[in-house]
Structures are given as structure tokens and as C-alpha cells.
Amino acid sequence: MVAKILASLTAVLTLVAAQPVFAQDLLPSWNDTAARSRIIDFVKATVTEGGAGYVAREDRIAVFDNDGTLWCEQPYYIQLGFMLDRVKTLAPQHPEWKTKEPFKSILDDDLKGIARGGEMGVVELGMATHAGMTTDEFNRIVSDWFSAAKHPKTGRLYTDMTYLPMRELLDYLRANDFTTYIVSGGGVEFMRPVMEKLYGIPPQQVVGSTIVTQYALVGEVPVLKRLPKVDFVDDGPGKPAGINKFIGRKPIFAAGNSDGDYEMLRWTTAANGPGFAMIVHHTDGDREYAYDRQSSIGKLDTALDEAERRNWLVVDMKNDWKTIFAFEP
Amino acid sequence: MVAKILASLTAVLTLVAAQPVFAQDLLPSWNDTAARSRIIDFVKATVTEGGAGYVAREDRIAVFDNDGTLWCEQPYYIQLGFMLDRVKTLAPQHPEWKTKEPFKSILDDDLKGIARGGEMGVVELGMATHAGMTTDEFNRIVSDWFSAAKHPKTGRLYTDMTYLPMRELLDYLRANDFTTYIVSGGGVEFMRPVMEKLYGIPPQQVVGSTIVTQYALVGEVPVLKRLPKVDFVDDGPGKPAGINKFIGRKPIFAAGNSDGDYEMLRWTTAANGPGFAMIVHHTDGDREYAYDRQSSIGKLDTALDEAERRNWLVVDMKNDWKTIFAFEP
């Protein structure tokens, strides 16, 4: 008993000693610019009891887009990278793919040919690579892929392509009793196997697009089969719907990087009371990629106009971030 | 600083002093029967580090059906009670309901007439009472209704119709670092406004049936409109699918009371490793209701047969529960 008390007391003393966090220790990969200050000011206000900006712990919900907000989405979405590799893996079982689009273009390494297939091509590609197995099998396939698959430009593991300043931001929010969620157009079951390791976000806090699953018995064993049918698209106006469906509370903090996040940012800042919206603006062509209004991936146009009008924070990756990737020299 | 340390130390001492919980303090509304022992044995095993039944905190997921498992579902589902009242409230705006089923029967207080309408009648009824407003408006309507609506037999508020032993069980599991979820056929947005107050379960841990919502602007204000279209039915084989979609982890503990929970109980006990399934068997016609295989509401037939075969715990409400409702004399 006494040992227990002493151990607990030590823990408490350590905690108390660690309390005064100096400004320069917060978000160390961020430069000391207005962007960083605005984030810190908002968080401080939400945790200051009695203050006008105070928010109860249970309402400190923070939502983050994933592609282009937490990890790199260029030269193509990481999930598309998965699809391309998967087609090549499965090709021997599908001789018909040699002449059938979009599979033919993938097997020929012709990315433009895939793009010519348009939306229908991508849906067909998604279903061919994401359906037809159980949820457990898909989890294993995705986990295995992430353990080895590499980014086409940097040659780093995809799992190394996360933005260090954003991971620090997630930690900082959680240290202030925010609950952090992913709200992404990506597939829920594509993301879940790695989100906890990458961002400290557990499966139940990953909101994304879903396909229909069906309960079935394989012998005596119940499984869920992934059917080739879209259930829910968590993008654009689907993001507030997804937040409402999965979380059931309005966020007070939202981060995105493209027009696909626009409605989520509106939703977050429309509530009575505190609401903070931020956009990660890809301005660093040297360390990462520079793109916005004209990009086919992560197009940022309407939301960029609206950001100014609505006083949303636009983070300039080049100037606001000291480091982008942890692997930088 | 010193005051802070002292306050923390006091908190720690209180915690330590409170540690030894004696068996008779656990689940006080349960009789000292085998049912109670089996639950306690399972929970103790999951938290015993190094033991064969140990489960890491993040995997201690417990799922609970709601109707008939946590609160009373007789003589009809509480959500049906809401629909009936809602039709009466809205009737002046719908003169056509006077001659149109299932509305006519409701306005005539003819419950059998509603039943004659079958499943389509119930869907139409659901849409007429659950759609056509924003999510915020629906939340208010539901909250207002729960503040006054009463159970037709006991005359108590519906919110008093929860089972005290089950609330103790939820508390007990949470005290052992389980995360508790509702997984119900009921509407998510019908349940969420009251689940936290009744069971300590926050909105993001309520899984249920959903209707399609649509993002829209009302002037400058973003809202979600509830459309008269079913999105997902979280019942029967839909329950494992709902668990996978919303939670993304397999539960290790599941409680239900009807055949609609059968697949969830199978799913929970099929995983490699620990899995506990229990069925609340309605055996007390005096204090509550007695029903199982022949009941149109909460039919328990297949799952009761399977319970024996699979060694699921069947809780006998009459003999295993000292108290059912907190309001009992």
C-alpha cells in the first residue's frame, strides 16, 4: 500500500513538474509565425476555465482530413498507389485485364491512360482491389502493403510521408484533452490499420468512405464480406454528414487542404460558440509539392477564397513549417 | 504549486483507499447467483495482467443492444411511442392522415390497425416522423419528447424505464477500462440525445440505424437535412456490419435480448481469444414483462437455443435481478 502511494505520488510530482510548458516547446516543427500563434491562442482559450472561449472537454472534438492534410497526396493518393500495386499483384489471376481498362493502363504503367478512364474507371478499380474478401483479409492485405510500399518520388515508405508539424498538432490538441478524428474521403478500412501507429488515432476515431459489408458464415465462423458496392462517400458535403453519423457532435476544430474539405470547415465554424478552421496550403515545391487552384488532386480553389472571407487560418507550408517530413536532413 | 501537489496527493490517497472493492459491492442490484459470478469472473480475467484471459485496455470493447436489454421495449418500442405521439402532434398539419393508414389507426388509438400496416406502414410512419427537418431540430424534438413522455403501463417517464442492473453492469465494465457502446436497431439520432444521461454513453459510442442526411445551406448557415430515406439498418446481420463500420474493432463483450442480437453475439464470441455473450431473458411478468419465443417485439428463439449450445450467459431477470427498475418500492 505504502509503495503504491509513493509510486503514485512520484507520478503526480513528475506531472506537476512537467506542467509549465514554454511556448517554444509547443509545436517545435512550426516556425514562430502568426499561424502557430493563432493555433496556440485558440487552444489556450478553449481550456481556460471561465474564459469566453472555454469549451468543455467532451466537446473538444477536432477533425482532420488525411490526404494532403496529414500525409502527402502527390503525385497521386496513397490509396491509388495501393490500387496500382494490387492490380499488378492480382493480374495473373485476371488475364482479361491485359486488354481491359483501366487495368491495361496500370499494367502498362500508363498513368495518363488511367486518368482517361474517368470516375467510372476509378470506381471499377476500387471495387476490383477493395472488395471480394473478408474485412479481416483486407486488413491483412493493407497492413502488409504499408509495411513495404514506397512513395514514387522520395523512395520512402508511405508511412514516412506524414507531416511532422501536423503530428505535433495532433499531440498538442490531445494534450489539451481534445479528441482527434480523421475525417477523410479515403476508405475507412484502408486507413484504420495504420492510423493509430502514424497519428495516435484509434480505429473508432477514423471516419471515411465505406463499402457495403455483409455478414456471412464460413463454416461455423462468422465473417464480414466486402461487397463491390459503395456505401458512403465521405467527401465534400459528405464530410459533415459523416461527422454527424459517426461522431454525433459538432467539431470545434477542423483541418483540411482542399475544396473537398470546404463543407467540413463551414460546418465546424458555423456553430454558435468557438470554432477553428485551418487549411494546409501546399506552397513548398522543393520540400514537398506546390499546388492549389489548378491541381486535379487536392484542388484548393473555393475554400481558399472562402478562407480569407471567413478568417480561416491558411497555413503556408513553406514559411510556417520548419520541417515537413521527419526524414529531412 | 504546493497546494496543487497536496490536492493531487489527496486525490491519489482517496483513489488508493477506494481500491479494494468487495464482491458484495459489485453489481448490487444483482442477486448472488451464477450469472453475476460469471460476469465478474470474466471481467476479472480480462484485467488480470499475465493471465490467460487478459485483454489490453484498447480492446476492451463492450457492446449493448438497447431495446429490451438496457431499457423496456414492451408493450411497444419506445421509439414507436415517439412516433405515435409525433403523429398526433403533427396531425393538424396533415388532414389527409384522418383517412390514410397507418396514420388513421394511430389517431384512432387502434394499435392493432397499425400492426396490420406491416413493415411498409412502419417505414412510412418512421419517415413521416423522423425526416423533413434538420438534425438540430430533430435533436430538440426528441429531447423535448423524452422530458415528458410516459410509459403506457407504469406511467413513469420513459427515461425511468431503464434496467438498474444493466446500468450497474455498464459502470462496472467502465471501471475496469472497458469502452461501452450501444449497438441498437433504434435510430442513432433518436437515442443520442438521452444515452449519455441514462447510461453514461456519449454520442460517438452510440451505433444504430441511420437515415440519409444532406448538407444544405439555409441562408448562410450550414445544416444537415434528414431525408426520408433509410441509410443503414443496424439489426440482425447489420449489427456486426455496424460494429465494424463505426467501431472498427471486434468487441469482447456483447449483451442482447432477442434474435436481432444473434449475429452480434456470434461475432463477439467467434474471435480468437476472450469473448463473452449474454442474453437478458424477460422472465418477470410481475415486475416487468415475460416473453420470448412467441413475442412479436423482442422475439427470442434462435438465440435462446444457441445460447445453451454456445455457453452464452442467459440472465433470468426474475431470479438474477434483485431490482429491475430504480423506482421499485
TrEMBL record, chains A, B:
GO terms for molecular function: L-phosphoserine phosphatase activity; magnesium ion binding. The keyword Nuclease does not apply. Keywords: Amino-acid biosynthesis, Hydrolase, Magnesium, Metal-binding, Serine biosynthesis, Signal. This is phosphoserine phosphatase. It comes from Rhizobium chutanense. Residues 1-23 form the signal peptide. Its EC number is 3.1.3.3. Gene3D superfamilies: HAD superfamily/HAD-like. Pfam families: HAD. Pathway: Amino-acid biosynthesis; L-serine biosynthesis; L-serine from 3-phospho-D-glycerate: step 3/3. CDD domains: HAD_like. Its cofactor is Mg(2+). It is an enzyme of class 3 (hydrolase).
